[in-house]
Design a protein that fits this description.
This protein is of the alpha/beta class. The chain is built from twelve helices and 14 strands.
């Protein structure tokens, strides 16, 4: 990778990924692609090139690829699970028609493409414990349907046309930089903001609901490490299970209480998000990622909680 287009650069993953790529590849063009209404600001705006990059506008994307001689595209444009359920047709347009545009451009201009999948690609018939890399995928949400289709279409373009497509299945992501945008696992971010602000947290997910989670530094590491991996070692491509920690709301609350003893939480579950969470795995088996490209997370629940609370406490004390 040298010249990279990050589509969705102002989102939860994209904002941190773009800045990390600029740190790691200082002599390259790392283009922050965004849509109107989600413009970059701060370091994201000032540290490198920025361009409007709407995945539904193929001509616009092709012009950016030519202008900056892009060799790698990170396609992070998507509506997250709960939002996609409310706007299924828009989710399909962004996640599938947008993907076709990117894959066709990549085929023509010889770019590598990373389009992430998710635990949402699994469904209620998928084994919930140590979910295998290769297993049944019959999701019951539009978000999940588009993620399965993304995996299949990305594999098709690799097999049929030789496009270098790669992806991971992200668990729930926890960030201390950017707020989430409507995902089922968002409670695991929101809970820290409430705790640090001294507010009671109203949890929309029931106690005993386990889901895979990951701290954002590990997610960014996975995005970069996979695209830098030796392609001859990749048996799987779209998409690798990656895992870091699995917990339910009670476990996370108890960990926060070690740092903020007066933290209060009550339950008021959201039936839509709960149904989605119940259809997802409790814990994925990520042995293929570990074997094929050396995946290894650096954070567990304890170290992530400590870092989240310290970072947010410093920010809100200013």
């Amino acid at each position: 990778m040298k010249n990279v287009l990050v589509i969705g650069s102002t989102g939860q993953i994209g904002s941190e990924l773009t800045l990390e790529l600029r740190r790691q590849i200082p002599d390259g063009n790392i283009v922050a692609g965004y849509i109107k209404g989600a413009e970059p600001h701060g370091d994201l705006l000032t540290s490198g090139p920025c361009e409007i990059a709407d995945v539904t506008n193929a001509e616009q994307l092709a012009q950016i690829v030519d202008k900056y001689e892009i060799d790698t595209i990170y396609n992070l444009a998507a509506l997250l699970s709960a939002v996609a359920e409310a706007k299924p047709l828009l989710a399909w347009d962004i996640q599938m028609n947008g993907l076709i545009n990117i894959l066709e451009i990549a085929r023509d201009k010889k770019c590598a493409v990373f389009t992430p999948s998710s635990i949402g690609a699994f469904g209620p018939n998928t084994p919930k414990e140590n979910t295998p890399q290769d297993t049944i995928q019959r999701p019951k949400t539009m978000y999940g349907v588009t993620k399965v289709a993304t995996e299949l279409l990305s594999d098709y373009y690799f097999t049929k046309y030789g496009v270098d497509t790669r992806a991971v299945r992200f668990p729930g992501l926890i960030s201390n930089v950017t707020l989430p945008g409507g995902g089922t696992t968002d409670y695991a971010v929101d809970i820290f903001y409430s705790a640090v602000k001294g507010e009671e947290f109203v949890c929309p997910i029931q106690a005993g609901t386990f889901m895979d989670m990951m701290y954002m530094p590990d997610a960014i590491k996975a995005c970069i490490d996979l695209m830098n991996a030796d392609p001859s070692k990749l048996v799987h491509r779209n998409a690798f299970n990656i895992a870091s920690m699995s917990f339910d709301p009670e476990m996370l609350r108890n960990e926060i209480l070690k740092f903020i003893p007066d933290f209060k939480m009550r339950y008021e579950f959201d039936s839509v998000r709960q149904a989605i969470a119940d259809s997802w795995p409790d814990k994925m088996d990520d042995s293929c990622a570990r074997e094929e490209w050396g995946w290894s997370p650096e954070y567990d629940m304890q170290s992530m909680t400590k870092d989240m609370i310290e970072t947010l406490s410093q920010r809100f004390s200013k």
